[in-house]
Design a protein that fits this description.
It comes from Streptomyces plumbiresistens. This protein has helices spanning 6-9, 20-23, 37-44, 54-58, 65-73, 77-85, 91-97, 101-104, 117-130, 154-165, 182-185, 195-207, 223-229, 258-270, 292-304, 340-348, 418-422, 450-453, 458-477, and strands at residues 146-150, 169-173, 210-212, 232-235, 241-242, 255-257, 284-288, 308-313, 359-361, 363-370, 376-383, 396-399, 402-405, 409-411, 445-447. The protein is of the alpha/beta class.
Amino acid sequence: MADPKGFMTTPRQDWPRRPVEERVRDWDEVYVPGALLPIISKQADRCMDCGIPFCHEACPLGNLIPEWNDLVSREDWRAAADRLHATNNFPEYTGRLCPAPCESGCVLAINQPAVTIKNVEVAIADRAWELGFTPPRPPDRLSGRTVAVIGSGPTGLAAAQQLTRAGHTVAVYEKDDRLGGLMRYGIPEFKMEKHHLERRIEQMRAEGTKFRMSTAVGRDIGAAELRSRYDAVVVATGATAWRELDVPGRELTGIHQAMEYLPLANRVREGDLAVSPLSAAGKHVVIVGGGDTGADCLGTAVREGAAAVTQLDIYAQPGGERDEDVDPWPTYPKIYRLSAAHEEAGELRTAPAANADARLFAASTLRFTGDADGHVRSLHLVEVDAQRRPVPDTGRTLPAELVLLALGFSGPDKEDGLIDQLGLELEPRGTLTRDARFATNVPGVFAAGDAARGQSLIVWAIAEGRAVAAAVDRHLTGSSRLPAPIGPYDRPMVV
């Protein structure tokens, strides 16, 4: 604890964002470059080095947060990077994309603004790359065992890196033409520039991990054939089966899933397309779904030049403070949060019919109507109460030329044939069945990440990847020294 009074003398200060008018004209990350380092040491000083640090419990990776806060306050970047990477393979991802349940569990957050744990984390990660503290770590010797990892999202990459470093020969199979899963084509560039992904993949290549892109297991290569080639297989395909909206008019042209829209916008940034075929430019856009994916659609539509953008959230607008009766500390509370995309939409007034941040809360879609050519033109909605029952006389109609459905995911996609070809069993909710060792019903096949857990946060995905790697290592060698931060049945803290 570098400054025993830091939490009393230093107010919370977050990484400042660039002005809205500037950042919506490009796709760069929204934060002011270089503005974090001048403030981060004093922010790390606010950590109280609690005797029982609940931030550990709130983080499924078990990040050693008080330790690296202390090291950052002393500007010992090498030691801080070592402590951070001891529990997290990809802190530059979580530092940008995780909603930081660790901050909700910060003891300081009981009655003050929490420590800026997420900002400290990303500062360490970026500084480690700048100073050369993240060299490849190839194994000293090979085990002679082989592992196939299906999926290159955060779970698959974490599992592959851990198993490679343990000495196994690992090949990652990815159905898309580039690696990264939803981090590549689902996360907009303004939230995480893709060079962060590229340099970590190059690190993994230098360590010995092999990558097979444009290869859908079950379609381009038989799943049973793949299983016969390797000593173990890890299924980390994610939860990509999107949820539908079963209302009249859904068949109209111009209504798309968020994960049809976002990948095309990302492909424009990759140089594959000059303009997205689903571009929001000049259109009235309505996004159905109030989560992070919906906010990603919002920020993307604003940058594409939409005429108007409105986001519908079926839940009532939450308050600005934690409700101790509903979400007591240290759980992750449902409170009103203003993402960068909502800040942009509010300042630019993209949705005159909505609240200041472009969101309509407690809103449920009733139906869509279109023109004579079968293209969507309007979305009809109604306000709902806490039980999602329609409130009489609250019907409204919004102009809608592009509708994006951001309703979440139910489990892994079954279309490629992987699940049927291997004979994998499914839970009633559509996720892969596994036991306490992450093993499926098929010998030598393991399941991890959203494909088995259901849709979750990136920090849980990386924890799953590290944990399944330990389970596979134990299966192959009889024991393992790899860390296993979570079990397959662990869940976030709730009341």
